[in-house]
């Protein structure tokens, strides 16, 4: 996991523990004060929100406990590995794309971060600038040329 990804997970955990948890507890208390719990939709919604929040807190604590944070400033070279930022050109459309290869928990394709276990990352790892790669996608195969590889 990258340091930024680790920090984002820690921030989400802190927010869920210090902001969401007290807000949900207050909502449960408020709903309880309205009487009969068996037909109290607010109470059931708050309990469901509590269950979801506590589940996510446990998930975040587990991920953070097992996380191996990799200092990207110490990575270098011209071979694509975890943490590399890769500039590609689609050989069919000439569209250029830039992706950073990150851990599963921090992947977000819209912001250019792809999971190390994604098909495109698996195709890229071990390659260098100038190499061609074939990626199997749900819409069929795609061909890319690697234009640039950088770290940090």
Any overview of this molecule?
With 152 residues, the protein is of the alpha+beta class. The protein folds into two domains: 3-66, Helix Hairpins; 72-150, Transcription elongation factor, GreA/GreB, C-terminal domain (Chitinase A, domain 3). 41% of the residues lie in helices and 22% in strands. The protein contains three helices and five strands, in the order H-H-E-E-E-H-E-E. It has a five-stranded mixed beta sheet. Helix 1 packs antiparallel against helix 2 (41-66). The two termini are 13 Å apart. The relative contact order is 0.15. The model has no long low-confidence stretch (mean pLDDT 88).
What amount of the residues lies in strands?
15-25%
SS summary, helix count: 3
Q: Show unreliable segments.
A: none
Overall pLDDT: 88
Derived from helix and strand composition plus strand pairing, the structural class reads: alpha+beta
What can be said about the biggest beta sheet? Answer: 5 strands, mixed
Question: Quick one: CATH class of the largest domain?
Answer: Alpha Beta
Shape annotation: elongated
For the record, the count of structural domains works out to 2
Number of E-state strands: 5
Per CATH, the superfamily of the largest domain is Transcription elongation factor, GreA/GreB, C-terminal domain
Fraction of helical residues: 40-55%
Output the helix-strand order.
HHEEEHEE
- Looking at the overall shape, the CATH architecture of the largest domain is Roll
Distance between the termini: 13 Å
Radius of gyration: 22 Å
Q: How is the CATH topology of the largest domain named? A: Chitinase A, domain 3
Q: Identify the strand order in the major beta sheet.
A: 3-2-1-5-4
Protein name: Transcription elongation factor GreA
Family: Belongs to the GreA/GreB family.
Biased composition (Basic and acidic residues): 8-20
Region (Disordered): 1-20
